[in-house]
Write a structure and sequence with these properties.
2 copies of one chain form a homodimer.
Chain A: E1 6-7, E2 17-19, H1 43-46, H2 52-59, E3 64-66, H3 69-75, E4 83-85, H4 87-93, E5 98-103, H5 114-126, E6 131-136, H6 140-152, E7 155-161, H7 162-167, H8 169-177, E8 181-185, H9 191-199, H10 207-219, E9 224-226, H11 233-252, E10 259-263, H12 268-282, E11 289-295, H13 300-303, E12 305-310, E13 319-324, H14 346-353, E14 358-362, H15 364-378, H16 384-403, E15 408-413, H17 421-428, H18 439-446
Helix pairs in contact in A: 2-11, 3-5, 4-15, 5-6, 6-8, 11-12, 15-16
Chain lengths: 453, 453
């Protein structure tokens, strides 16, 4: 294996448990609060939205949770996912560093999202749920949920931000191939949607509006629930299979990371890769620097405040303590749609506050420049979101070139960019620009965030 | 491994030789002929187009040819490719048959084409060639060659059929990410292109015209050569790594195929999968039925004639003895663009004439219906071309359901459909129809084929 490019695991080496970082943190994360009373949210508060098994996972303090056999069976369609040594990129950069990337683009939907979509659908199926609703922006999450629903025979109804619905018809087609029913949002299906369409028939929609429509459709019917693709504890829990596999794969070639970088939007890709390594670090078994990478245009950790805020724009969800730019904040239209979220997963926010992880923000031109280098050397065209992780890995590798250090760098390529080629086209024609965020804009968006002691 | 879904090979289990079926055939295939003299074509006739190493492979009778180490290094970016047992599709079909599929969509370009693009570029690089030219229709081949050129630092210039250039901008973007220079064809770069544009500024182009432009640009410059993505012997040779890997993978789980089905356009995917199994069959080690699957709208084997014809529409290439619908035949605009070729690889045609393989034609509605079943059960959205192979595998599996036979079926899923979702959209909206070919149309196209004794 001295000249390996890919480090693979056999199916029977695939981890059979998810890892819950809450069990190992020096301080427990602050609880979610009821949006009306501001008291800690109870299981009943979550019950109209999620099946009980997922509500239990959301507040669990168990260190390991078994992955159901039916879920493992579906995981096997693409898992264990490969870990690559980026030898050809290293050569291009002329760096003494070793760059490893865990590749999640091998999933049917092309990203890490099915890792949580599959168990979410399965737990709902176990509790007799007939249909799941959700929102989607660019479509990665919506297509993952549609795929998972097809596996267990559930209906899937998706509200896609109208602007994306029109601009990215191929992602919608993908959802439909898997049996998903897709509405542009605002839609004429919900009262809220009809109200907005009456005001503006060409309303472009927003993720916040799409969440409101999906949630309202779920809570009206006992046989329907809602599913979320990031941010929540149980979502990050399911994604830890990424990091658990990567640990086993690095061990096969006798490596431990000196630096781990991951892109952060809602936080599920980062948490999924990083938390198993953070466990090892807390146990004194390795000592990687662990770093979040966010877009300069939506710098939740590096410029947001750590306080209670709503998860959605309309303020319907429980309040979560997290780094936020304000729930009314509308991020700039950068191409990494999956990173355009005003908040950060409470668990990622918490470990950042505890000083266990670092964070940097990277502008999008640097990201796309890195992605083109990556594509020409490693072959894979990355989705816009992980271009941030790649840009950060390249920064590290070039620093090693300066210093002569042979650091081992680990990152996750959380999805391919086959359905995001229009972004690359804009970049290569010189039509893309960096979108920096003014402090005034952030201040203004924070005005609506409730004051909670 | 009793419950395996994927059968993987380690990198050091990857075959290190390609297999040349010519060495094992009961009769040698008829030679290519010079287009002017109708005498057997010599190495010198091919020299302006291809490097000598590839010309030698084109006429080689060696059984095995070593894969260069540099080529193996690039192959490792995605090879060995996985062999899947389609358990979830079997369950959906309620069949006692076992369905295996070799998946080539894991390559950077998303199809089997890089298997030959990489060695073609490498051999050109060894002979000091600076630039490669080629044509592309839908874009699978052009993007594969651009990727391969990026690996070895060659320039890549691609003439894409104008209608596709306009209708499929994302494939073009992919070629550009890898550094390819893409022209719509007809283009203002060549004399032939300018002539056609002068006659019709909105000329939609054709594969034949694009070939003429790419060839004319190659033969004008000593440092430039041309590359072809299918049909020729050396292309099929490079693709045999598919079948060699599949043989090793099936052996790992103790299986031999009873039926092998593969889609055929130019013939490289089919030959790549089937020839190593045909070797085993000729040696008496197994006895699979081996079947070509072609589109009803372009039924080269099942309705074409076996005779000498040109490889391109303009009649510039050597004459090859093959099944042909006539080099002037313009296939119906079916969605499987990669199967819209008037001829069939001479080697595939030859083994068909010898009775070593069978052929069937399948209409496109049946193909897309099968593909949607496949996507909903196995997760992967197939490219339009391999939907033909899937449809044929499903026919076989359903016949097993009738008969109760537990046959082992093997096929190749030669590419994913991420850049072909518009075809699925048309199918699901009921806007697609079957395109049957009239015998009169074939007769008319055959009139231009030269009479050769």
């Amino acid at each position: 294996m001295s000249e390996y490019t890919k480090i693979l695991l056999e199916e029977d080496e695939m981890p059979t448990q998810w890892y819950n970082i809450v069990a190992d943190l020096p301080e427990p994360p602050p609880p979610a609060l009821h949006p009306g009373t501001h008291q800690p949210a109870t299981a009943e508060d979550f019950a109209p939205l999620f099946p009980m098994a997922l509500v239990e996972q959301e507040v669990s303090t168990e260190r390991y949770i078994d992955i159901p056999g039916d879920v493992l069976d579906v995981y096997r369609l693409w898992r264990p996912s490969p870990l690559f040594r980026a030898r050809r990129l290293e050569k291009l950069l002329d760096t003494p560093a070793k760059i490893f990337y865990k590749y999640e683009g091998v999933s049917p939907a092309g990203s890490h999202k099915p890792n949580t979509a599959v168990p979410q659908v399965w737990y709902n199926a176990q509790e007799g749920i007939r249909k799941l609703t959700t929102e989607t922006g660019a479509g990665q999450w919506g297509s993952s949920l549609a795929f998972a629903c097809a596996q267990f025979g559930l209906e899937c109804e998706i509200w896609q931000v109208a602007a994306s619905y029109l601009a990215k018809p191929h992602r919608r087609t993908m959802m439909e191939i898997w049996g998903g029913k897709v509405h542009p949002s605002p839609s004429d299906v919900t009262e809220f949607g009809r109200k907005l369409l009456a005001e503006n028939p060409d309303h472009p929609g927003s993720l916040g509006i799409a969440i409101s429509e999906a949630v309202s459709e779920a809570i009206e019917d006992e046989t329907v629930r809602y599913a979320l693709g990031s941010v929540l504890n149980h979502v990050l829990l399911h994604q830890t299979i990424i990091g658990e596999e990567a640990l086993l794969q690095l061990a096969k070639v006798g490596e431990t990371p000196d630096v781990l970088v991951g892109c952060t939007g809602g936080g599920s890709n980062f948490g999924g890769l990083a938390f198993p390594f953070l466990r090892e670090k807390l146990a004194g078994k390795m000592s990687p620097v662990i770093r979040c990478v966010e877009p300069s245009a939506c710098p939740t950790l590096t410029k947001g405040e750590y306080r209670y805020d709503f998860g959605d724009t309309a303020g319907l969800t429980p309040l979560m303590k997290m780094h936020t730019l304000g729930h009314g904040f509308i991020p700039e239209p950068i191409h990494a749609g999956g990173l355009r979220y005003h908040g950060m997963a409470p668990l990622v926010s918490h470990v950042y506050e505890l000083g266990l992880v670092e964070a940097i923000a990277v502008p999008q031109l640097e990201c796309f420049a890195g992605a083109v280098k990556f594509a020409r050397s490693e072959g894979i065209v990355p989705a816009p979101e992980p271009t941030h992780a790649i840009a950060a890995a390249i920064r590290e590798a070039l620093a090693c070139k300066e210093s002569g250090e042979e650091k081992t760098i680990l990152t996750a390529l959380c999805g391919h960019g086959h359905l995001d080629l229009a972004s690359y086209d804009r970049y290569m024609r010189g039509e893309m620009q960096d979108l920096e965020l003014s402090d005034d804009l952030i201040k203004a968006a924070m005005l609506d965030v409730p004051e909670i002691a």
